Structure formats: C-alpha cells, structure tokens
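stage 2 :: seqdesign
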C-alpha cells in the first residue's frame, strides 16, 4: 500500500509501505475511505516538534472494515466505520467514566494518511453506521473522528449551557467546530474570534452571533465590551499558544470556564492569576469516542455539517500538497481520498 511519511520539517512524501497486519486479537484493518491533514500535523511539519526519524502521519479516518482480530465482534468486514484519533478499549475504569482518551490501553493513531490502517482496540474504538453513508456525508463523518469531536469536547469542558455566552478562540477547523458545538449545546451568544473573512463567514453560518477580529488584550477588551464588562460564561481555547491561552483566560468571567483543546506549545499559566480569577480550566485530548454515536447521528440526521471545514480535497497521493496548502494558509483543512 501507499502512505504519507514525514522525513523532516517541510518534507512529507507519499511512499510504498508494508500493508498493515492484525498484530493483536483486538485489532482491525480498515480500507481508508477518507483521511485528512490536521492542524497538529503542522507542528512537526513546521519544525515546532522534532522529526527524529522518518515516520508515517495521520490520525483522522473513516473507512471500510477489511479484516478483524478474533476478539473484535461488534464490527464486521464490509461495514463503514468512524473511529477516534485515540483508541480505547471502552471497558476500563477511565473509559467507563467517559474519558476514553485516557484509556488504560490507549494508543494514539499515527498512520492514517494511507490506503489501509491498523486500528488497535478496534472493538472499543470503531463505531459502525447502519448503512454505507452517501458520499456527501463522508467529510462530516470524517470531521467527527477528530475536529468535530474535539470542538464538542471544548464546549463540554467550557460548560456551555443553554442561554449562555460562549467565546471561541481560534478559527481553525477545531474552533469552527467549536462554534457548531456551542450552538448545539444551546449557547445564545457565540462570539468567534477570527481575522479571516472566509472563516468568519463559516463561523456565522455555523451559528456565531458576533465576530471579533482583535487579538490579545485588544481582543479581551472587545469581549468585555460585548458582555457588559463581565466576560463570557464559557471560552473554548482552540489554538494552543501562550497568547491564545491568555486571551481565553482573560475573556472568561469569574465563575466561567475555559475548555482548552489546542495542544499547548510554550503555554505557562500563572497560578496566582488563575487563583484570583475564579475561572475553571479543563483541557486535554478529547474523549471523542464518548461522543461518536451522538455526533454520527447528528450528521446523518442533517443537523450538523462540520465537513464544511474542508476547503481543499485532494487525491491521497497529493498529500504533500495538502500540508503545503495548510502551512501556507491557503487551506483551513485538506481532505484526502485514496
Ligand atoms: Zn479504556
């Protein structure tokens, strides 16, 4: 089979690789229907994370089950499945508590930009649809495997409630999905912080009520203006930089909550400031598996359309162009099809 391999920052190649095999009775092999490039894939691509040796890439996927190990009984070959970027057995104490992305047997997916993928913990990770979905629903189901699930978690972690005011920091794919989540969870006012016209448009389409283009303390001042000087009930931090985290913490009202899902890079939090702010803070890799059945239903019912975050579709063999386009901000998110 063929798949993407990163050799060094800026150097992603599409290469012939060994076909994946069942290694454990809990594995499945899927044939990729669609995969994509994640904002977090850009960290090594831009040299912000080291690339010590060439390795495969990709952690978002939907596919058709090809083969299952002997302990995988609830998904059968031929079924269309959606999974999470973090695999989980769905039976351990953390899974039962709803924190599948902290599963005691967790393995992070990292080989999905390829024709075929081995899914560890397949029994607890994969959710099959009743039927093969229509082609136009595939992008939204793919989004559910990471960005939509992560945006949902950001809203849950920020404790968005009906009638509340939510601020979304970050207008990448996760931030835009965070707008969808805040709307679905009933936020009355959704303030999207974005400077890019096309992303502002999509945020408004997804349910944002206000757009703030300012950043840093100017952005915080605008949020205060818009909330009568109080601050927001819920803030979804979807970037992961020191500036975005500061902006998020300063935008929440006393008693408000920040859900942070951007993987932090050089983020330091001042303990005294957090103490006196009365702001609640929860983040981490999203327990996407917990939300999969619900989010798949919302997509299939036509309630949400997170697939709109893909503004570039390429054949899988042009994966390097997907990275380039996202790195150069010519695309928000690139979808790839074998
Ligand atoms: Zn578990």
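stage 2 :: out
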């Amino acid at each position: 089979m063929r798949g993407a391999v990163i050799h060094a920052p800026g150097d992603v190649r599409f290469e012939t690789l060994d076909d994946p095999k069942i290694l454990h009775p809990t594995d499945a092999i899927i044939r990729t229907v669609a995969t994509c490039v994640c904002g977090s894939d850009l960290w090594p691509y831009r040299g912000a994370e080291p690339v010590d040796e060439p390795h495969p890439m990709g952690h978002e996927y939907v596919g058709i089950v090809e083969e299952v190990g002997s302990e995988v009984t609830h998904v059968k070959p031929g079924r269309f499945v959606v999974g999470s970027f973090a695999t989980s057995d769905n039976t351990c104490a953390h899974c039962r508590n709803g924190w599948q992305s902290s599963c005691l047997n967790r393995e992070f997916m990292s080989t999905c930009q390829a024709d075929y993928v081995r899914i560890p913990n397949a029994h607890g990770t994969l959710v099959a649809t009743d039927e093969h979905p229509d082609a136009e629903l595939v992008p939204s189901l793919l989004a559910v495997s990471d960005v939509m699930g992560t945006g949902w978690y950001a809203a849950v972690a920020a404790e968005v409630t009906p009638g509340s005011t939510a601020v979304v920091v970050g207008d990448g794919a996760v931030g835009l999905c965070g707008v969808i989540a805040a709307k679905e969870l009933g936020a009355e006012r959704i303030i999207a912080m974005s400077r890019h016209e096309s992303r502002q448009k999509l945020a408004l389409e997804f349910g944002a009520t206000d757009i703030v283009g300012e950043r840093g303390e100017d952005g915080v001042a605008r949020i205060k203006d818009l909330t009568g000087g109080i601050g927001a009930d819920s803030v979804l931090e979807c970037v992961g930089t020191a500036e975005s985290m500061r902006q998020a913490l300063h935008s929440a009202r006393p008693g408000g909550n920040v859900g942070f899902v951007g993987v932090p890079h050089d983020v330091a939090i001042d303990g005294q400031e957090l103490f006196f702010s009365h702001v609640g803070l929860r983040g981490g890799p999203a327990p996407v598996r917990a939300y999969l059945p619900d989010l798949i239903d919302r997509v299939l019912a036509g309630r949400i359309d997170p697939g709109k975050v893909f503004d570039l579709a390429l054949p899988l063999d042009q994966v390097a162009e997907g990275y380039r386009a996202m790195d150069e901000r010519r695309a928000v998110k690139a979808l790839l099809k074998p």
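stage 3 :: structure notes
- Residues 51 and 336 are 23 Å apart (CA to CA).
- The longest strand covers residues 28-36.
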